[in-house]
Amino acid sequence: MQVSPGVVTFLFTDIEGSTRLWEQEPERMRPALARHDAIVRAAVARNRGTVVKMTGDGVHAAFEDPLDAVNATLELQHALAQPEAPDGIALHVRCGLHAGVEERRDNDFFGRAVNKAARIMSAAHGGQVLLSQAVAALVRDRLPAGAVLRDLGAVRLRDLARPERVYQIVHPKLRQQFPPLRSLEATPNNLPQQVTSFIGREHELPEVRKMLGNTRLLTLFGVGGIGKTRLSLQVAAEMLDDFPDGVWFVELAPLADAQLVPQAVASVLGVKEEAGRPVADALKKHVKDRRALLILDNCEHLVQACAELTKQLLDSGPHLKILTSSREHLRVPGETTYPVPVLAVPDSLSAIPPAALTQYESVRLLVDRATAAQPAFLVTDANAAAISEICRRLDGIPLAIELAAARVRALSVENIAARLNDRFRLLTSGSRTALPRQQTLRALIDWSYDLLDARERAVLGRLAVFAGGWTLEAAEAVCASGDLRESDVVDLLTTLVEKSLVVLEAAGGRYRLLDTVSQYAQERLNDSGEEEQTRTRHLAFYLALAETARPELVGPNQGAWLTRLDLERENLLSAHAWCDRAQDGAALGLRLVYSMLLYWVNRGLLGLGHRATVEALARAGAQGRTTTRCRGLFNAGQLGCWMGRYEEARGYLEESLAIARELGDKGRIAMALQPLGTACLGQGDRATAQTHLHEALTLAQELGNKRELAGAFNALAQLHRAEAELDRAEPLYEQVLALARELDDRESIAIGLLNLAMVSIGRGSGDRAGAMLLEVLAIAAETGSKPVEQSALEVSAGLAALRAEWNRTARFYGAAESRTAQTGLHRDPADEAFLALYIAKARAALGVATFGAAEAAGRALSNEAAMAEARAWLERGC
Question: What global pTM score does this model have?
Answer without folding.
Answer: 0.68
